[in-house]
Amino acid sequence: MTVTRAAHRIAALLATLLVALGLTSLTPGRAAAAPGLQEVTGFGSNPGNLRMFRYDPDGLPAGRPVVVALHGCTQDAAGYGTGSGWLQLADRYRFSVVLPQQQSGNNPSSCFDWFQTGDIQRGQGEAASIAQMVDRQLADTGGDPARVYVTGLSAGGGMTAVMMAAYPEKFAGGGVVAGLPYGCAQAAGSPYVCMYVGATQTPRQWGDRVRAARPGYGGPWPTLTVFQGTADYTVKPVNMTDLIEQWTDVQGADQAADVSDTVAGYPHQVYRDGAGRAVVETYSIIGMGHGQPVDPATGCGSAGAYLLDVKLCAGYRLALTWGLTAG
């Protein structure tokens, strides 16, 4: 076993111990299984040893968008796809969903390894496996390569930022739900410091971490939307601030919001670049703890452990931002 992989195992075992002791962590619960989900094998070399599931609505034509949805710790692809509302939204608005699934051999708590250097670099580990899933889905469904999006909860949110940084040419937008900025564990010296305290970086330093993930890339970069609970004590709200600083810097925008209003009673902000394009958007969910915002009353998601009924559905808001509701 390599030193990196050994460290990987130790970190994962520590995470499991902390969960058992009730002291942490990125541990959203499972939801019900989803009918119609298909497992895909042989989607590439799969260096991160992940499983690929997908949901293709019946009669889906070619040229439709693709959403990659990344579950949180202890969740699986089926449970997150249903609980978050993404599968219902796919039926309603006619797009396909790719649902990567972590394996216990990689991480005993089924967390995507957003904090492991070997899994967050282009061409390596879990990031490369997810990129291969995107390529396979586009090839199989004839999806629109210009309309591929990535989102995830908690550890899946951390991996969403990874995919935006390491493979920016593959994604038009990303949605981070209770997640972390790219390179946060390395900047903070520990994933736990990142989660609970944050890392001391300037916007330029945050942006440099993203630019270093894809050397020589000139854009366009994916747009970013963030959902964060103000009462989240697992991934502290400072991580949303750091995400704003990171991605406004990458996009060449300043850190002053151009729009400040409310959506469903929650503070909502939009940051625009010099050309007036919305490049970063945030939702601060007052009083919400750690989890995915859902709104079952509108048919968007289902309430459960770490699937929080706050009368706002993160999936639907992302679908609006990404233009999925317009056809």
Low-confidence stretches: 1-33
Helix content: 25-40%
* Largest β-sheet summary: 10 strands, mixed
Placed side by side, the strands forming the largest sheet appear as 1-2-4-3-5-6-7-10-9-8
Order of helices and strands: HEEEHHEHEHEHHHEHEEEEEH
Strand segment tally = 12
Instruction: Give the mean pLDDT.
Output: 91
Shape, per Cα inertia axes: globular
Rg on CA atoms, Å: 18 Å
Distance between the termini: 49 Å
Q: What's the total helix number? A: 10
* Global structural class: alpha/beta
Question: What portion of the residues fall into strands of 2 or more residues?
Answer: 15-25%
Task: Walk me through the structure.
The chain has 327 residues and is α/β, with parallel strands linked by helices. It is built from ten helices and twelve strands. The chain has helices spanning 3-21, 77-83, 86-93, 125-141, 155-166, 184-188, 191-196, 203-213, 238-251, 314-321; strands at residues 38-40, 51-55, 66-70, 96-101, 148-153, 173-177, 223-229, 259-263, 266-272, 278-285, 292-294, 307-309. The strands form two sheets. Strands 1-2-4-3-5-6-7-10-9-8 form a ten-stranded mixed β-sheet, sandwiched between helices. Strands 11-12 form a two-stranded parallel ribbon. Helix 8 (203-213) crosses helix 9. Residues 1-33 have low confidence and may be disordered.
